[in-house]
Design brief:
The chain is mainly beta. The protein has no helices and eight strands. The protein starts with 32 loop residues before the first strand and ends with a strand.
């Protein structure tokens, strides 16, 4: 009894290794800008402007946080003014 062993050798196509890409990342938006506009009614503590650096300066009844965020100190309506070369945000208190 003779058994023949046959081997079927085939060459398959193969891919080369892919190079790594340096793309594919993005940072989350910082959501900066004016949050309450001129004439709008605000409550004390409301954020008026989120900014990097002082594009807007605090006026009457407006405070500035350590990240330069401007916020209302009293209830009232927002006023934007330009004075001394600066854009200033103020809150005019509501008369009770």
């Amino acid at each position: 009894m003779s058994s023949t062993l046959s081997l079927d050798l085939q060459m398959f196509a193969h891919k080369k290794g892919m190079g790594s890409s340096r793309n594919g990342r993005d940072s989350n938006s910082q959501r900066l800008g004016v949050k309450r506009y001129g004439g709008q009614v605000v409550k004390a503590g409301n954020i008026l402007v989120r900014q990097r650096g002082t594009q807007f300066y605090p006026g009457q009844n407006v405070g500035m946080g350590k990240d330069h965020t401007l916020f209302a100190k009293v209830d009232g309506h927002v006023i934007f003014k330009t004075g001394k070369g600066h854009r200033v945000v103020q809150v005019e208190p509501v008369a009770v």
